[in-house]
Amino acid sequence: MSIIRARRLDLKETRPLTPLRRENSDRNEREALEGAVKLRSYPRRLVLEMTSACNIRCKMCGRVAADFTPTVFKKDWLSIFEPIADKIEEVTLLGWGEPTLHPEFSEFLAWAHARGLRIFFCTNGTRLKALTEDIFRYEVDLLTVSLDGADAATNNAIRCGADFDTILRDVEGIVEKKRALGVQYPYLSFVMTMMDSNFRSFPDYVRLAKKVGIQEVKGVYLTVFDDAMAAESLEGRTEELREVYAQAQAQGEELGIEVKLPYLQGEDIAGDAPHKDCYVGWRDFFLGSDGFVRSCMSTPVKLFRVEDYSSFDQMWNSPEYQAFRAAVNTENMCAACRNCYQASAANWNRPSSFDQRGQTFAPEWEG
Question: pTM for the full model?
Fold first, then answer.
């Protein structure tokens, strides 16, 4: 079992696609690779940012370095996607905030389940116990829990307000229910933001996953947003990381745990480019909790307000989206894309991917 990398074009399939979805996904992939600007296909994934609010305070989060006005995704916006619900594969509930804080979160799960869509969400784990029944009622396919340490002391010092032991106990409850029901869902993973305080413990993190019943562990590099976190950066720490990667890979192979890690600095396939080839403008449709469409979570650039167009077709091939697709992988890309820090698309050969100080890295929230 070798180290795997973050997905940039494909998505993890947990169930067979209908013929219509397979046809759309195959066409979408071809159009992405061809760099088509006006698309005949629809996105493979809806990424819906449930809220910009959070109930914990992680010391590395961008919300400590920018103003975050609390915003909440309007459930009425789901009607926009009804005409394409039989063609897309997945609904991902993810963004700057903690998605499970949305007061109608379970209704989004119900909406996606009723339409046969793959469901994925990433959470800080603080509401897992309350959501366990709905996770199985609505057959959530993919569930990622953020933990920033292999022990309580490390995690709780980084993720202020999230109790490591409680979260593990609640995850174990999901694993036990999964076994009791004899089902394969949800596919469970942990994700760690790797920084000086915790990266050496990543091999222990793999062992923790095995102990709890997690199938995959993922590491993403810390992005520095303010001076307080500068000393935590792993920029320039390639040889130390290489040793940790080797240990984690060995643990993964021994224990049967998937290990997903970013490229080491100097070895990223992006070479000297600002970022790897980016496919979010083809594969994904991202709608922020403030009602603005952005190309992805990790950009401050708003393409348009969702109310600016009367149908999804108009939005998907709008002048703004076409302009983004035409520029994102060329020298004409916008400044935010040139300084990309998005976990799967960023070029980790570049120091700017590790450090966003002085950059506008998050949108201005409009409640």
Answer: 0.95
